[in-house]
Design a protein that fits this description.
It contains 1 helix and 7 strands. By secondary structure, it is mainly beta.
């Protein structure tokens, strides 16, 4: 199963309106095709590449940011999962603060 590891230093998490369990995280530099391929995959958030994840979950969807600020960037929707904390990504293959594992 594919997964994505992201460096998150700005704490850009928010609860999805109307949901008690779904959150959003953005603004990630990926294509819509890449984002679509990651739906139903795990997402892991790290402070640094070699540190274990501090948060994460299962990607339930995404949207593309519209407007001047972060236009075209991906915002992932996800359900947090405790098993996505404390996960390491391994060395190498990081690009622009993200690592996609297939």
């Amino acid at each position: 199963m594919a997964a994505i590891h992201l460096i998150e230093r700005e704490n850009l998490f928010s609860r999805v309106n109307g949901s008690q369990t779904e959150y959003e995280s953005g603004y990630w530099n990926l294509s819509e095709t890449q984002a679509q391929e990651l739906v139903n995959s795990n997402i892991y958030f790290h402070e640094r590449q070699l540190e274990p994840s501090f948060y994460g979950g299962v990607i339930t969807g995404f949207r593309v940011q519209q407007g001047e600020l972060h236009n075209g960037r991906i915002i992932f929707k996800f359900e947090p999962k405790t098993e996505c904390r404390g996960v390491t990504s391994g060395r190498g293959c990081w690009q622009f603060e993200k690592k996609i594992v297939k």
